[in-house]
Amino acid sequence: MANAILPVDIPEIIGWGAVLALFVTMAGQAWKQWRDRVKHGISKLFFLGQVTASTLFLVYSAIKGDVVFVVGNAMVLLAAITGGAILLWNRRHR
């Protein structure tokens, strides 16, 4: 529902702001992990749990039809997979 004064939905703007903050944070962390050639990381069980939880939250958000949470949860899942891939790459190639 749009605000009577502004032609925008304030909660929607807050949600997209959260998604942007999440993206900037996770992209920065992935870049640091790549740049610093990090070869150690989280446990396999933690990684599996994170990917599972992110996947389930993504499906739940899609079922609920909340685009902000779909995008946010998709980014968290992508960041987890990217972080795991960077870690494997660094272990094998650096």
Mean pLDDT: 86
What share of residues are in beta strands? under 5%
| Percent range of helical residues | over 70%
- Give the low-pLDDT segments: none
Helical stretch tally: 3
Topology of helices and strands:
Elements: H1 10-35, H2 44-64, H3 67-93
Helix pairs in contact: 1-3, 2-3
Short description:
With 94 residues, this protein is an all-alpha fold. The protein contains 3 helices and no strands. The chain has a domain at 40-94.
Polypeptide structure, described:
Helix 1 (10-35) packs parallel to helix 3 (67-93) and helix 2 packs antiparallel against helix 3. The protein is mainly α. The protein is built from three helices and no strands. Helices cover 79% and strands 0% of the residues. The chain has a domain at 40-94.
